[in-house]
């Protein structure tokens, strides 16, 4: 029989495959394909679809490794933190969790800040800070009420985004068919200005568009049959976005084969006006705002569950593992992330987003290596297929992600390095100067699924 203390620290299983996929799609955000299109076009010298294909390759490898680890460690939430900790030791597990906190803790801030910046530009009479708060408050309240409510809200938010993208694709193809843009069906993939260096730089930035799929592992304790559901959901989400990003970039470069925009940061609105006029540009702007809200909703939910797991394990303050008695949600982590979003009042988008990828790529590398370590220790399969699935693909993922990490600008690597150093210092305190291991991960929490 489970005591009251443990039951208050167990999440409720309410999510099926479709719910997890929708949360993943909302987390990554479909309209990020338009929000960052100008930057990818510019960096790739007009071959954005090819840059996305390179990034897709790295993300598929990584999603495969995450899926392998999720199928093995399926009893608890924790993401890369759990997997690396179990396969490579609790100290590396802690540092992995610390690194991934760079993403989970600050991506909501960036998401809310981007949405607020769009609105502040459109309605300059309203202060930027007011728009930031307008994003944070309802998002935080929805996540406190419960992941099931957030999932239902995400269905509508994701549907609207996909409708906007479908209209953009249709209008772009119609514009291309009726105008001589100078592009061919293949020119978006390769042109005279294509270089490997440009593609690599663009691919490293394009990886930001995919970040978020890994957070689905944080929903393990709230998912039915997580051993099968989480790996399938991750691959579905990555494949879906790979097709979406490549397709949107392709039609965008059909109607705009060059790399020059009036404002590269708002290129989506310029493209929307080109193919659909000012009315459609207004619809795209509305879609971008809706997308930012949906993304913030899903990311805050997953991030709070990472804090819940690390708090429950004792590597962060225990108060983070507190669940709301009424809603059974990690309310302390949810509120803390909401408060962190207020830092956006004092930062700009470029600064706040500069170090996001450092934590993600570092975690991706370690998860790929953890998959190889699991095979080395446990031999879960035999033959060429097992070697391919447990060694070759994860190794390829680790190599590609390391290359992307090294392709980040110097400021991102510097800030990431400082964050890592702080993590090492906290680990030293936690382990009394590395003389003892940090608290171990709890992967055998009782299943307290409640009757519906």
UniProtKB/TrEMBL annotation:
Membrane topology: Multi-pass membrane protein
Principal location: membrane
Swiss-Prot/TrEMBL keywords: Cell membrane, Membrane, Transmembrane, Transmembrane helix
Annotated transmembrane regions: 20-41, 47-66, 95-119, 125-144, 156-176, 196-220, 232-255, 275-308, 329-347, 353-375, 387-406, 412-431
Organism: Kushneria indalinina DSM 14324
Protein name per Swiss-Prot or TrEMBL: Amino acid/polyamine/organocation transporter (APC superfamily)
Record GO terms (molecular function): transmembrane transporter activity
One matching Pfam family: AA_permease_2
InterPro entries: AA/rel_permease1 (IPR002293), APC_superfamily (IPR050367)
Cell membrane keyword on record: yes
GO cellular component: a single term: plasma membrane
Subcellular compartments: Cell membrane
């Amino acid at each position: 029989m489970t005591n009251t203390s443990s039951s208050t620290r167990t999440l409720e299983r309410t999510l099926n495959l479709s719910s997890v996929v929708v949360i993943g799609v909302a987390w990554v955000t479909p309209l990020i394909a338009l929000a960052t299109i100008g930057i990818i076009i510019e960096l790739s010298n007009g071959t954005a679809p090819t840059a996305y294909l390179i990034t897709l390759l790295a993300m598929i490898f990584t999603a495969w490794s995450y899926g392998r680890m999720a199928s093995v460690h399926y009893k608890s939430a924790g993401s890369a933190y759990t997997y690396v900790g179990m396969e490579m030791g609790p100290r590396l597990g802690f540092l992995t969790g610390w690194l991934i906190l760079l993403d989970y803790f600050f991506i909501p801030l960036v998401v809310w800040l981007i949405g607020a910046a769009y609105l502040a530009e459109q309605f300059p009479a309203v202060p930027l800070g007011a728009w930031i708060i307008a994003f944070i408050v309802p998002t935080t309240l929805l996540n406190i009420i419960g992941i099931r409510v957030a999932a239902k809200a995400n269905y509508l938010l994701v549907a609207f985004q996909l409708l906007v993208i479908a209209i953009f694709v249709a209008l772009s193809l119609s514009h291309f068919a009726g105008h001589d843009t100078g592009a061919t069906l293949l020119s978006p993939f390769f042109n005279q200005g294509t270089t490997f260096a440009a593609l690599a730089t663009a691919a490293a930035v394009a990886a930001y568009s995919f970040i978020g799929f890994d957070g689905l592992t944080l929903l393990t304790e709230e998912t039915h049959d997580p051993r099968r559901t989480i790996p399938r959901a991750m691959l579905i989400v990555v494949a879906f976005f790979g097709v979406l990003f490549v397709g949107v970039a392709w039609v965008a470069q059909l109607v705009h084969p060059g790399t020059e925009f009036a404002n590269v940061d708002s290129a989506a609105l310029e493209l929307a006006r080109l193919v659909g006029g000012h009315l459609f540009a207004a619809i795209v702007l509305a879609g971008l705002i809706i997308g930012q809200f949906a993304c913030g909703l899903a990311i805050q939910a997953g991030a709070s569950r990472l804090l819940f797991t690390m708090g429950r394990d004792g590597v962060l303050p225990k108060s983070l593992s507190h669940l709301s008695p009424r809603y059974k949600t990690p309310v302390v982590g949810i509120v803390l992330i909401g408060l962190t979003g207020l830092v956006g009042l004092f930062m700009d988008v470029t600064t706040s987003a500069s170090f996001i990828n450092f934590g993600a790529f570092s975690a991706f590398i370690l998860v790929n290596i953890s998959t190889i370590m699991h095979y080395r220790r446990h031999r879960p399969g035999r033959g060429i297929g097992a070697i391919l699935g447990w060694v070759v693909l994860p190794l390829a993922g680790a190599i590609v992600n390391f290359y992307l990490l090294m392709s980040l600008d110097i400021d991102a690597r510097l800030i990431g390095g400082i964050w890592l150093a702080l993590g090492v210092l906290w680990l030293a305190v936690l382990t009394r100067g590395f003389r003892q291991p940090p608290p171990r991960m709890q992967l055998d929490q009782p299943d307290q699924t409640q009757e519906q």
